Amino acid sequence: MAETNVLVRKLKLCVIDEDENVRKEKYKFIRDAQYRQYQLLNRYMSYLTSEFYQSEMDLKSERYKEAYKLSTKDFIFEHNIEYGKGVDTKSLVRRKVQDDFSIAIKNGFMKGERSINNYKRDFPLMTNGRALKFEYDEENNITIKWVNKIRFKVILSANKKNVNTELAHTLHKIINGEYKLGQSSLYFDKSNNLMLNLSIHFPKKEKAPYIEGRTLGIDLGMKIPAYASVSDKSYIRSKFGDVLELTKAKEQFKARRTRLQQQLRNVKGGKGKKKKLKAFESLSDKERRFTQNYNHQISRRIVDFAKENQCEYINMEYLEGSSFTDKKMLGTWTYYELQQYIKYKAEMEGIKVRFVNPAYTSQTCSKCGYVDSENRLEQEKFVCKKCGNSLNADYNASINIANSTDFIIGKKKNNKKKKVA
Ligand SMILES: [Zn+2]
Q1: pLDDT recorded at residue 328
Q2: How far apart are the CA of 382 and the centre of ligand 1, in A?
Q3: How many CB atoms lie within 10 A of CB 43?
Q4: Measured between alpha carbons, how far is residue 321 from residues 30, 178, 325 in Å?
Q5: 128 and 1 Cβ atoms separated by less than 8 Å
Q6: 389 alpha carbon – ligand 1 mean position (Å)
Q7: How far is the CA of 377 from the centre of ligand 1 (A)?
Q8: 2-28: per-residue pLDDT in tens?
Q9: Hey, is 128 helix, strand or coil?
């Protein structure tokens, strides 16, 4: 088998069926199967643990080996659990518990440094990838055929404007067979939405040769959407995108919107009003598509640049809270979306993406390391108070980002760090 990479994507689903009662039954089927899996997980884990103790914690003893063998052949403790039809709960639970058990042993369970897994009631319902058949319906919605004649519709977004095109693109590749599916799981989130943790296997690309540790630093700015430079050879740099271009497009959209608004005010209602409202909506769609497209292009070029210059990593600023809105520019065009696109495309190329603390990246001299808020005289130029180093401010920041080791991992919701610009 060719080597593969694995991506995990979360999908929101709903059960398709015209009959409301049947639909309810199907949701219930999922919940029941999830409950049975939960029972079985805990029973099997208890069984293994108790057999382990009774064999004097000797994994190599005949007694334990015999008990283990018995459990892999058939569950002797599962007599009154009924499984959901078609859900491969037995073999999935067997593998899961055996894996967890051996991990617990490895991590010090025998020494009493770890207690055994206790599976929670809401443990996601595991399903084999091959039980999920992705396809398009007549209206081009993405649907999934699952076991027991259950069909899901994939909800790509709450409204058409925000369709995650990156995700749609990935799902398309599942439908046309380019990507395979691994073991996935279903669960209900806090708002009771049915969710699918989908694990996607895609062929590993010939990994582009990279220079160990080499990093492309990306500064997202107001004048230049993205400025990138290479950590160990900062003269390798490039600008991506053009704010003037964006501003111009944005103004055109605004002018058209204003025109439509005036026309709307002049129509009294009825058909004419409906028509205008529709035009208004489709204009927003167009604008949304324009910005998405723009972000796709820039992110593609940035990742290609990282590849050409043999970067192992891409560093970007971790944007959140107030710095997030500060960096939001030109309405719907957000840095956040651009970052997501870069991350996704880089991952596909085997380039690792890291997020760094954005504090001081724009006030630090990339040459001597001197930090001073006075360092920055104007928006576009950086002049160091100490060594006199003078260069484009975004370029300076991108060098700092490329060389930063102040990584921020995961989402810290309560992190109040603010970008000092
Ligand atoms: Zn300096």
Answers
A1: 45
A2: 10
A3: 17
A4: 37, 38, 7
A5: no
A6: 5
A7: 14
A8: 567 788 888 999 999 999 999 999 999
A9: coil
CA 220 distance to own-chain centroid: 20
**Cα 68 to averaged position of ligand 1 atoms, centre (Å):** 66
Beginning with the edge strand found earlier in the chain, give each strand of the sheet holding 237-240 in spatial order: 237-240, 226-230, 211-220, 311-317, 352-356
Report the separation in Å between the CA atom of 320 and the middle of ligand 1, taken as the mean of its atom positions: 28
pLDDT in tens, 301-316: 999 999 999 999 999 9
Q: Give start-end residues of each CATH 3.30.420 domain in the chain.
A: 211-403
Q: In angstroms, rounded to a whole number, what is the distance separating the alpha carbons of residues 230 and 351?
A: 14
Distance between Cα 230 and ligand 1 center (Å): 19
Q: How far apart are CA 197 and CA 57, in angstroms?
A: 36
- 211-403 fold: Nucleotidyltransferase; domain 5 (3.30.420)
The CA 409 to ligand 1 mean position distance, Å, reads: 29
Q: Tell me the CA–centroid distance for residue 357 and ligand 1, in Å.
A: 20
Among residues of the chain, what percentage have pLDDT more than 70?
87
Q: What is the DSSP string of 34-47?
A: HHHHHHHHHHHHHH
